[in-house]
Design goal:
Shape: globular
Number of strands: 31
Largest sheet: 9 strands, mixed
Number of helices: 10
Bound molecules: zinc ion
Distance between the termini: 45 Å
């Protein structure tokens, strides 16, 4: 892989995904959740389709008896006769069957099931994986021949420290912890009925959260995370004012949602939540400031190697692991890892800094995209690519002053984490695990994170905004407390 672009931002935008219709502004499906999970059809035979996988239970507690293997279920349509999990690190293969042979329950329902030893999960649960060991790849077989796409399968392991998290049953269809609300909604995995599930949540919590995160479990869907705007009253950032809060049951507070369809990518100390939250305000700018590929990221520019990245052809996000410099007529490159801290332009649009410094964009974005698609392009070379200066004056002349201004903008945001489960409410340890992965958002300091197959070390939202913004993930946030600022 050419690490000068791609990485955790290489992504697919699946047009029209979801059922929100006109009742929210959807920003792109972001990052590489799907491309990391799904290995598209390497043999080209392609008749089979892997729709999702599911562990039973969804989360393995650290102290599960080794006499009780975990059950893995994979939904494969298209006529597979069997399936297999090829364990990582040369661990051999595990057969999955749809013949009604235990642990498979029902023959012929396209749910292929197998047993995975507890120890094989524990062995792969290394600290840098942050409780999400990479188990291997699953693939269907037709008449004994491996066929069609592979899916990377990760497990979730609840560590001992989560055992003390309190879980409360509210009703037959609702449970909660100090961090997450779980409601059962059997249709959500099929219809993406976000208005319905968020509306149902308000039977149990107040309309005091600016953001709702919709987390899906126990199924791990083969789908990207993404953000949608529910209302906007900020001007000067290229986004129109609108309000669809009522359709979510939120008369006042909610401004946006982020969807996390797969627990393998759910880490609230990771860059994914920073990026999706940033989409609430970024990037609705047009013209030289805009995303020429309609991905709501940055153009290929001096702004594209931070949290929001840039868009590849078609709109998927890419990480520009390259520092660009320009004298106006030529572009010089220097290899550097993309930052998981917001840059000044991102902070400005979010209302977290009063002004922006000068920046530049490559004037010919088609030529710029051709360049970054070449291997080893960011090797210190200089290219004959003119740039256009981006300045505060040009920004405000084009889009107006940001309002509310930095002085009075909101900087403290409450997050409602809504775990939507199909078939049942979640068990104590399942909710403790998701709570721990949520509570990590409150931890300051550079810490390990893992999203899908990749991981690194990085900041939480507070530190990624240089201490200017806060996401408060507590379900019972101190809504009236004096510390909130505004
Ligand atoms: Zn994005």
């Amino acid at each position: 892989m050419d690490f000068r672009r791609g990485g955790w931002l290489a992504a697919l935008w699946l047009a029209g995904a979801g059922a929100a219709g006109a009742s929210a502004q959807l920003t792109p499906e972001c990052l590489d959740d799907r491309s990391q999970i799904l290995v598209a059809d390497p043999d080209g035979r392609g008749a089979l389709n892997i729709e999702y996988y599911e562990w039973q239970p969804a989360v393995m507690p650290f102290d599960r008896s080794t006499a009780l293997p975990m059950t893995l279920i994979v939904r494969i349509t298209g006529g597979a006769t069997s399936a297999r999990l090829t364990l990582s690190s040369g661990g051999g293969t595990i057969s999955l069957n749809d013949l009604g042979q235990a642990p498979d329950v029902t023959a012929g329902d396209q749910l292929f099931t197998g047993s995975v030893p507890v120890q094989s999960i524990l062995d792969r649960n290394t600290p840098e994986r942050v409780n999400r060991p990479i188990m291997g790849q699953v693939q269907g077989l037709e008449a004994g021949i491996p066929t069609g796409p592979l899916v990377n399968v990760l497990a979730s392991v609840m560590p001992a420290e989560a055992r003390s998290i309190a879980v409360t049953t509210i009703s037959a269809t609702a449970r909660r912890t100090p961090w997450v609300l779980n409601i059962r909604d059997d249709n959500y995995v099929n219809d993406n009925g976000r208005e319905r599930v968020v509306g149902a949540a308000y039977a149990h919590v107040p309309d005091r959260y600016e953001f709702v995160h919709i987390v899906n479990a126990p199924r791990s869907l083969i789908a990207n995370r993404f953000h949608g705007r529910i209302r906007n009253s900020v001007s000067g950032i290229g986004i129109n004012s609108f309000d669809t809060g009522a359709s979510y049951g939120s008369p006042a507070a909610l401004i946006g949602f982020s969807v996390f369809p797969n627990l393998s990518f759910y880490d609230m100390h990771g860059p994914g939540v920073l990026h999706e939250t940033g989409h609430q305000w970024i990037n609705g700018l047009t013209g030289v400031f805009g995303d020429p590929r309609n991905g709501a990221h940055w153009p290929i520019s001096s702004l594209a190697n931070h949290v929001m990245g840039f868009s590849l052809a078609g709109g998927p996000g890419g990480t520009l692991n390259c520092q660009l410099s320009s004298n106006g007529s030529t572009l010089t490159t220097q290899a550097t890892s993309s930052s998981t801290y917001f840059n000044s332009w991102e902070l400005y649009l979010m209302g977290l800094t009063p002004t922006v410094p000068n920046a530049f964009t490559v004037t010919d974005q088609t030529a710029a995209l051709n360049l970054v698609n070449q291997p080893n392009w960011c090797n210190g070379s200089t290219y004959n690519l003119p740039t256009t200066q981006l300045s505060q004056t040009l920004l405000t002349n084009t889009f107006g002053q940001r309002s509310p201004s930095f002085a009075i903008s909101r900087k403290y945001f409450h997050v409602l984490t809504l775990v939507v489960s199909n078939g049942r409410t979640l068990g104590d340890d399942e909710l403790r695990y998701i709570s721990l992965m949520t509570a990590r958002a409150q931890n300051r300091g550079v810490r390990p994170w893992a999203e899908g197959l990749v991981g690194s070390n990085g900041p939480n939202f507070f530190e990624a905004t240089a201490g200017r913004g806060t996401l408060d993930f507590r379900l019972d946030g101190t809504f009236a407390g004096g510390f909130e600022g505004n």
